[in-house]
Batch of 2 targets.
Target 1
Amino acid sequence: MKIQLLKLAHARSGDKGDTANVGLIALREDYYPLLVREVTAARVREHFEGICRGEVERFELANLGALNFLLHESLGGGGTLSLMTDAQGKTFSTALLRMFIEVPDEEARSLGIKEGTSDK
Amino acid sequence: MKEKIRIASGQGFWGDMLDAPVRQVKGGQIDYLMLDYLAEVTMSIMQKQRARDPRAGYARDFVPLMREILPDCVERNIRVTANAGGVNPVGCAEAVRDVARELGLGGRLRIGTVTGDDIMGRLDEFLERGIELRNMDTNEPLSKVRDAIQSANVYLGAWPMVEALQGGAQVVITGRATDTGLTLAPLINEFGWREDDWDRLSAGTIAGHIIECGAQSSGGNCQYDWQSIPDLANVGFPIVEAAPDGTFVVTKHEGTGGIVSIPSVKEQLVYEMGDPHEYITPDCVADFASIQLEDAGTNRVRVHGIKGHPATEFLKVSISYSAGYKAVGTLVYSWPDAYAKARAADQILRARLERLGLRFDQILTEYVGANATHGRLAGEPSPDLPEVQLRIGVRGADRAAVERFTKEIAPLILTGPPGVTGFAGGRPKVEEIVAYWPALIPKTEINARVEVTEA
């Protein structure tokens, strides 16, 4: 089934020059392996197609149940050069939480995850 | 040696809640108050202020704040570390000394200043000697923007502040010091950590990272279950309660709002994170993959297990340079067809700019309410949106062209699509762009200077 990341993770994002960073944090420890498997740098690059113009790097932080993504060339030049409302990439966090990943039904059931976008 | 010390965060940036540091001082027991005032562009603003008035060029808010809290700080021996000095730490220290004397505290405290971060006057010397100060992001040599440079400051670490604290400073005022150093310096001072104790220096650095953005680790801007975070109106800024072995608890004062929880701390840990295995500061290289978090009670998160690596041979330099002009104009379009009207207005405006022969490096149009933050990820806007704000910005080297653009927004009200409003603020302002140039310099080139004087 397709599950939206909003149901599996929370996130915070920020900037370093023209690079946005998104820290994606598993809502529960046992969701983390799922994120590691499905939310790859390539998938994130595809998700942000047209928004991120450079490479996407991914770093694993198993101790925090978190992944850190660097989205290069994403902020219209960055800092004061950028004309964007979100020149500092603060909303890239929630933009990533829009992503859907495919989870086998049985795995989803064992983790207690229901299909869709939100429990609330 | 004390068994633990409490370091309170009072300011996450210049412009943060004015009363937060006061509430940190008056709301409970603390040993140190750290205040971070400097964003990357702040230095160039201060440089301009000092050019107009040699006594200016620092975070002015800091002086009235000292007036309010200095008596308590002296009475209870709370020591302050602040990078409020901007491009004029000495001027800032003089202003604080004047305040201390007015309060009748003359002779009862010492003020430390850290200088040596300002390398504006040495740039040509460096360039001549082959220190190119290449842009860390683009690898371009500094000579490309040499004539446009407005400020150049090295990020100093914790050690000069430690020296000031050891000299008995109650208040330490620095220029461009790292945010994390403001927390690490008190820990080194109290616990006598060695210069090569990389694990503990990294622990202190990570403690600094957790509290340097103020309430962003204690419930502010926290996505995790945000609706259940209590009483943000009365949000408590974070406090680090640290032990000599480098472990610490993140907490906040009793009776304040917000929350300190594992998710709130995790969100701050990943904020502005690069390679988490190598968080580089002048003092050490911290490994965020070593951090262990543990629930230690209500609004208490224990942090331990931190490992670090030796510091590098370089310091980061923050250079600001003038990079042209920009302006952003907005108009609001209402139902029906709000989004279609805003798009039509954008087309009309662009055609007029074209006809006027105005050239820009970039024109960016966003539709606030439809897709300004998430772009195409937000999906196709509903045809039924109640309103959409057209937000259009330009930038370029030619100030006159940007100025002319600002005069083309209001005419759209009477000459464009219907149902438009939201121009009460008048013409957009032309802003000079001060851009940021990060570079590295060998540590051996820089000498921090520390002075501690009686107020």
Note: The mean pLDDT of chain B is 96.
Target 2
Amino acid sequence: MAIGKTGEGSAQTAVQRPSRSKLRREIARHRSVYLLALIPLVYYIIFKYVPIWNAQIAFKDFMAVRGVLGSEWIGLENFRTFVNSFYFWSLIRNTVMYSVGKLLISLPLSIILAICIYECTRPVLRKVVQTLAYLPHFLSWVIMYGILLALLAPGDGVVNDIIKLFGGNAVDFLSNVHTFPWVVLFSDAWKEMGWSAIIFIAALMGIDVSLFEAAMVEGASSWQRVRYITLPAILPVIVTVLILKLGTILDAGFNQIFMLYSPQVYSVGDIIDTWVYRQGLLEFEFGLATAVGLFKGVFGMILVLFANWLSRKLTESSLF
Amino acid sequence: MAESNARQKHLKPQMQNKKVRLTAADHTFNVIVNLFMVLIFIIILIPVWSTITLSFRPNDYLGSNLEGMFLPPWEWSTDAYTALLGNDGFLDAFINSFKILIGGVFCALVLTIPMAYVLSVQSLPGRKVINLIVIIPYVFNVGMIPTYLLVRDVGLMNNLAAVFIPGAISTYNCIIMRQFFVGIPNELKESARIDGCSELQVLFRIILPLSKAIVMTIGLYYGVSFWNDFFHAMLYLSDNQPLPILLRNILLASGMNEYVEVNAFGNAPVSAIKAASVFMSAIPMIVAYPFIQKYFTKGTLLGSVKG
């Protein structure tokens, strides 16, 4: 045992000595690669690391005239203001509610859509639905807002026309606190359902056809094939998607909420990001807004790292 | 050969295997699947159709918008479109958006491709450090205010470049692209190096020609995000506004006069002009979509997160 160890050790030192010059040779050989990395790395330092440096104003009483460095340190004051404020819990609740709600609605929908696209017996229908279902993903939330206006406007929206046709009263969907969350959840499902289905369709395409043939020889019905072959085949993908979503649970969709909300629905519509925007760039409370952004950033980081670790543990695949 | 063919074509095994008889349960299954597909088709189509028909609404139309969805095309009016196309503000916004699109995609690809390639060179000493430099800001996102201060400090305010420069490398896109580059057989790169290619030549002569799908896909992702961006434009630009900002102003105005001088948009109904500007903003996406669709499905599958 002891002999084996010393043998290993001497072998290591023997390897190490030439490896240092080998390293130098390797670095020299990759000179041009480093050169290639230079401009992107400078970009990273300026546009990704300077903001991290700027984030120190979360601990400062930031004044624009004094700049980032000149402003006075005030410790955790900004964080204390945020945690003790009345909006703290409502912001967290809205943020988590929207991300979990979106997941609960669009995940089952996109799985069903993927299975239906895969199983569809009519090629033309399949092609048309597939193409049309991906399309809304490419439209901006400004365009989506325009579409929702044509659909939901209280005076002349199509949905309210239908409600009035059946004798109901027109509803202002976008400025009613009861309907607003549903508009957010379902408009997101409408926009992203097809796009989220792609990853499941990809998993379905990878299923070994002989499984289906064997199942049919054994007399399995279509339902049984879905239950025992298709669903188990995409289960690992579902787990991966769930885990990755866990990492971004504090991102509830800034662009969407920002376009759709209005002061009447702040109580149910405001999420962390929209609040940071208003506080920072409309009220000029840069320090407080940055503190809240940093708060979100730290929790987001913990969640992403945890999700990545969990993903590596459970599915042996991870983002980085 | 026959098997791989069958795998590609597999969407209904019993089509290939005619001996299997469909049971009643199978028929119900097929009917439900097809009905669901039709339902999805209708659900996606209705909002789009109501917007399109609204944009062609004539000024003297009296019925409800629900009835308007079934108005025959020969009663449609193009007033809203002629008004929009005749408006200088709209054309300027279109040109600004186009500049942001071209500049943005160019900058993004010029920065992302080398970064992704560098991260894909497995033998590179210090690759882990570079990887860390790229990952840290991705995982630790400090929010919008610090970036806003940076853009202000470097003097990009009210410059079209401010819209795309801060987001010119998306780490996520970079990781997808790296994943693709890693998948290219090492022997190809090595043999090129032995033949005397520099790394730059390896990138341009070997890697890029093999990576058309992923470059198109990532370029598309960037293009869509720059074309659709309204938030950064709103933060950083006070004039020279791109299309999404103009569209947002049009949509938020309750009457057209609120944001442009009276009669600037002719005599089309306000809601028709709103719908027409929505449709006009979406047209470039809709036109480009079929051409790039084959690339993104291919590229998304190739570069999917499973690594």
Note: Residues 84-302 of chain B form a domain with the MetI-like fold fold (CATH 1.10.3720.10).
